[in-house]
């Protein structure tokens, strides 16, 4: 979960396609988001990942802001799924080590395998 604007700025740089095209990125505490120009379009991204195009003093939901929001949110969702999968694998390992709980651990591992398989299309 992203809790600070500097973390959000770093996340944007890591996630946005063609990050070298990002210009004038700055955390703006007053508006509660990170502002930047990408491919000639000015954006603001809130910690909730809501993304708006900035024109003057107005915010707009446009096609490009919506697409950028989807890119940012998708990576965030994938990270949460992988984090949950790792926690479940750890639980399964603990169960396997306990006498008479090995089968429950194997079932947990199978559920993680199935979830990850769906993510990659298998």
What does this protein look like?
It is a single chain. With 122 residues, the protein is α+β, with helices and mostly antiparallel strands. It has three helices and five strands, in the order αβββββαα. Strands 1-2-3-4-5 form a five-stranded antiparallel beta sheet, covered by helices on one side. β3 and β4 form a beta hairpin. α2 packs antiparallel against α3. 14% of the residues are buried.
How would you summarize this macromolecular structure in one to three sentences?
With 122 residues, this protein is of the alpha+beta class.
Keywords:
122 residues; 3 helices
Strand and helix map with partners:
Elements: H1 5-15, E1 22-28, E2 33-38, E3 41-45, E4 51-55, E5 58-60, H2 63-97, H3 102-120
Antiparallel strand pairs: 1-2, 2-3, 3-4, 4-5
Helix pairs in contact: 2-3
Shape type: elongated
Strand content: 15-25%
Distance between the termini: 28 Å
Q: Order of strands across the biggest sheet?
A: 1-2-3-4-5
- Radius of gyration (CA) equals 20 Å
Q: What is the number of beta strands?
A: 5
Assembly type = single chain
Alpha plus pi helix count: 3
């Amino acid at each position: 979960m992203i809790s600070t604007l500097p973390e959000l700025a770093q996340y944007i740089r890591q996630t946005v396609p063609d990050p070298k095209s990002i210009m004038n990125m700055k955390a703006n505490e007053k508006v509660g988001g990170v502002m930047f120009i990408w491919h000639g379009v000015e954006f603001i991204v809130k910690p909730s990942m809501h993304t708006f195009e900035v024109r003057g003093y107005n915010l707009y939901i446009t096609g490009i802001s919506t697409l950028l929001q989807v890119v940012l949110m998708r990576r965030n969702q994938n990270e949460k799924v992988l984090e949950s999968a790792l926690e479940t694998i750890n639980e399964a390992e603990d169960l396997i080590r306990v006498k008479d709980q090995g089968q429950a651990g194997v079932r947990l591992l199978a559920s993680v395998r199935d979830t990850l398989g769906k993510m990659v299309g298998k």
